[in-house]
Amino acid sequence: MATVALVLGVSLLFGWAPLGAGATSQPPNIVFLLMDDMGWGDLGVFGEPSRETPHLDQMAAEGMLFPNFYTANPLCSPSRAALLTGRLPIRNGFYTTNGHARNAYTPQEIVGGIPDSEFLLPELLKKAGYVNKIVGKWHLGHRPQFHPLKHGFDEWFGSPNCHFGPYDNKAMPNIPVYRNWEMVGRFYEDFPINHKTGEANLTQIYLKEAVDFIKKQQAHQQPFFLYWAIDATHAPVYASKSFLGTSQRGRYGDAVREIDDSIGKILKLLQDLGIKENTFVFFTSDNGAALISAPKEGGSNGPFLCGKQTTFEGGLREPAIAWWPGHIPAGQVSHQLGNVMDLFTTGLSLAGLKPPSDREIDGIDLLPAIVQGKVIDRPIFYYRGNEMMAVRVGQYKAHYWTWSNSWEEFSQGIDFCPGQNVSGVTTHSQEEHTNLPLLFHLGRDPGERFPIRINMSISSKAEFTVPVQNLLLG
Amino acid sequence: MATVALVLGVSLLFGWAPLGAGATSQPPNIVFLLMDDMGWGDLGVFGEPSRETPHLDQMAAEGMLFPNFYTANPLCSPSRAALLTGRLPIRNGFYTTNGHARNAYTPQEIVGGIPDSEFLLPELLKKAGYVNKIVGKWHLGHRPQFHPLKHGFDEWFGSPNCHFGPYDNKAMPNIPVYRNWEMVGRFYEDFPINHKTGEANLTQIYLKEAVDFIKKQQAHQQPFFLYWAIDATHAPVYASKSFLGTSQRGRYGDAVREIDDSIGKILKLLQDLGIKENTFVFFTSDNGAALISAPKEGGSNGPFLCGKQTTFEGGLREPAIAWWPGHIPAGQVSHQLGNVMDLFTTGLSLAGLKPPSDREIDGIDLLPAIVQGKVIDRPIFYYRGNEMMAVRVGQYKAHYWTWSNSWEEFSQGIDFCPGQNVSGVTTHSQEEHTNLPLLFHLGRDPGERFPIRINMSISSKAEFTVPVQNLLLG
Asked: Which positions does the record annotate as the modified residue 3-oxoalanine (Cys) (chains A, B) (predicted)?
């Protein structure tokens, strides 16, 4: 009952009502701009020293910035599964059983994907009359039963996997590109990516797909959900010819500049069509910058430790901006701890829908934080595969397990924490600290460099860990 | 002649003329807000995750942000000497001769100070009718001949040294506090600083000194120069009672919040008095955050390597904002490479004065960058004591010497690069690389974590080093 009351209350505040309540006004359009391997530190507004994201910075100036926003997993597939289901990967199935604390994902040779039993946001939004489109990377399975149009999307332009390649052989063909049910070509063959020059016009194609969809839906007077999951900042990074060589940061920066420009164009389109006050836009990324690809093909996690694949802040803390003129006052900064899973619940709330009641939902409705400036008390769980490695409660983060990557990988030159070596923290073996978690204050020490030394009695330790476990199981 | 033309040209643009040209209109007031040990990463606008500097962020939104601004030395005394003389410490005498690559400063027991032969900015501004006040830390010598009122300042409220202590003994008395020529008390005795609680109301006193001076000068219709060199962010950090415990970042953050609030009040006063369009304000810091004091008593250098005392970016890259409503368009970001020494030359230019012609001046006039958006080609030299350790040209930085701190200090637990260990870069012995400088691209790799591997021929190496040396000697 509390949930229903909240949904109605918020709906009245925004001047529309859930369709189920018999109202005629339309719920807002929803646009999620999901970046690939972009780091917290890649935006000017989050301190990138070259300041090359004027449109995203402007979006933040007109909306709400979330400096404490997280993903549910530091790797692309489970992160995207969490966003679309509102659930931790250990609940929605996106974890691996063949190794402890190893993240799952769906490369070309994997036969798994998003289970049919999961409700995805677009499936539910359909009940409120939404038309749903995914542009870009799906990454939740490439077999027919996992196709996005079987999971609530009405339209798709993009690929089931990363733009790795070229493979160019029969046993391992290049990654296909789809328009809806139809395979319209393959990367490298029909959609060229030049590794040598870095040139590819994919971001322009993805921009056109977004623009065309928004214009079409606006003409049809139906609410829409656009999931713009582009991938120019994932190695091999790429940019169109007119952006190549324009960044002070090299090719990775060229990709960021083209994305920034494209987002500027999408927001301007919403304004020009007169629907900006009826379109909720949220910008974030799927996981931290891939420092293994840095600096030429990887981004920046700003002041945070390590990157993609790890459960340090650099792995899961994400840039995040909410934009909804007329509803979010300009220039706001929220101290809400947020998570990509919240986009599921918030999306439902915007549509006047309740989350499914037959399963645990980990995402919370962010609208009270976004529209009313509230701060909702909630923990952040840092998973790696099947293992909850760390928990954040308020400004404190407790590591129950630490691990950067294996000695074996490290000795081969693979380093998830290059130039960073916090003794006893960035460990190369999986080290358990459940009896005495490694504690950090993220306000004083955002870089997780100074573990707090505590004299912890059994009782005070119990006070800290028990509520967290209750919440997790709860 | 080129310089004269430029000064006249800029003056006409701003609607005043140098006094020497017989004009009646008054040159703008000048306010330098110089922080102590505040890091690049401590401001919301530079990406501090807690976003607790709304007034400084607003100052940036109304003015011009410099993400590529430097100090001349990573320690307080030589940095301040460089700011006020426009010259590198090796020229103005603020270096030590008793150890290679060791920074000089002026603790209580040192008898040296700023040489009489140096021209300080306030001395020269007097010629244009300015009244000059220093509030806060002088740090250029405490013997009578070094007194700020002997070097161009008309008024002083503050101390000759850091607020270390309490000493409370005859052989080593507490640091004195002066009002002009008169010693009005001592830290701890008359101006309490409570190490246990962190409480001290010094920032409020320094704020009142600034406010009273601005009001008085405004009534007298004389141009003024205010050098507000406060020190709440230097360990032991402090804040007034009403700010203690208000930051998510702990006591250091409390100090930052009080400073941010005070700067908001100073800018508002300029607005309320109707003189904001006739007052040039520049905000920066004397050196990088002191990571040896972090996280409880030290700040953040954002994505940059190491901190105070070192010649990595964390040691010398500074937060910097220029504010001058009506002259600087709002929301600008300049890619100009700037230096605190430029404040000397820019201050003279604002006053319609030329720099002294009988000596080398290392600071450049930033007005073309600030007012016309130009980017002036110039290198940045990273000195440590008598040794030029590194040079930045464009996005490239070449380390000729590397050194974090000695093995001896390091083994005692003193670490200028905590949690950071870039192999072959953060060396604990003084390592020379003059034959093959250690090269970084600061755009792609602001954290100096990925040395560029180059196959350098003798001729290409010569091309890189010769112009730099010419500039230095020239």
From this structure: 76
Say if CB B277 and CB B419 are below 8 A apart.
no
Read off the pLDDT of residues B358-387 as tens digits, 9 standing for 90 and up. 999 999 999 999 999 999 999 999 999 999
State mean pLDDT over A322-341: 97
Letter string b/e over residues A419-430, b meaning 16 or more CB atoms within 10 A of that residue's CB: bbbbeebbbbee
Annotation says B151 is catalytic: no
- Residues 435-464, chain A, touching B (beta carbon < 8 A): 441-450
Among A335, A418, A444, beta carbon nearest to B296: A444
Is A261 among the annotated ligand-binding positions? no
- Read off the pLDDT band of A25 (50, 70, 90): confident
> Quick check: A273 pLDDT over 90?
yes
Mean pLDDT of A423-450: 97
Nearest-Cα residue of chain A relative to residue B420: A420
Number of Cβ within a 10 Å radius of residue B338: 28
The per-residue pLDDT of chain A, averaged, comes to 91
What are the DSSP calls for B27-43, one per residue? PPEEEEEEESS--GGGS
Cβ atoms of B304 and B40 within 8 Å: the answer is yes
CA nearest neighbour of A204 among A259, A268, A133, A273: A259
What pLDDT score was predicted for residue A226?
Answer: 98
Task: Give me the pLDDT at residue A15, please.
Answer: 44
Q: Is B197 on the interface with A (CB under 8 A)?
A: no
- CB contacts of B45 in chain A (<8 Å) are 47
pLDDT digit string (tens) for A29-79? Answer: 999 999 999 999 999 999 999 999 999 999 999 999 999 999 999 999 999
Name, in order, each residue with C-beta under 8 angstroms of A197's C-beta and a sequence gap of 6 or more: A244
Which parts of chain B have pLDDT scores under 70? Answer: 1-24, 454-474
Under 8 Å CB-to-CB from B348, ≥6 apart: which residues?
Answer: B121, B124, B125, B354, B355, B365
Q: Which tokens belong to A81?
A: 């599964």
Q: What is the ipTM of this complex?
A: 0.89
pLDDT at B108: 84
pLDDT in tens, B316-327: 999 999 999 999
CA-based nearest residue in chain B for residue A447: B419
Of B47, B50, B295, the CB nearest to A302: B47
Looking at the complex, does the CB of residue B249 fall below 8 Å from at least one CB of chain A? Answer: yes
- Name which of A296, A300, A333 is nearest B51 (Cβ-Cβ): A333
Residues of B in contact with A41 (CB under 8 A): 47, 302-303
pLDDT value at position A458?
44
Q: What is the mean pLDDT of residues A344-354?
A: 98
Any known ligand binding at A76?
Answer: yes
pLDDT band for position A455 (cuts 50, 70, 90)? low
CA neighbor of B208 nearest in space, from B216, B219, B218, B196? B216
Terminus-to-terminus CA distance in chain B, angstroms?
Answer: 18
How many residues can be counted in chain A? 474
Active-site residue flag, A306:
no
CATH code matching the domain that covers A29-376, chosen among 3.40.720.10, 3.40.50.720, 3.50.50.60, 3.40.50.1970:
3.40.720.10
Task: Tell me how close the Cα of A108 comes to any Cα of chain B, in angstroms.
Answer: 31
CB within 8 Å of chain B, chain A residues 278-297: 294-296
Q: Do B67 and A49 touch (CB under 8 A)?
A: yes
- Closest-CA distance of chain A to residue B182, Å: 39
Contact B441 A61 (CB under 8 A): no
Give the list of residues 6+ apart from residue A20 with CB closer than 8 angstroms, or none: A352
Q: Does A49 touch chain B (CB under 8 A)?
A: yes
Q: Find out whether A70 and A383 touch, Cβ atoms under 8 Å.
A: no
CB contact under 8 A, A250 and B44: no
CB within 8 Å: B444 and A250 = yes
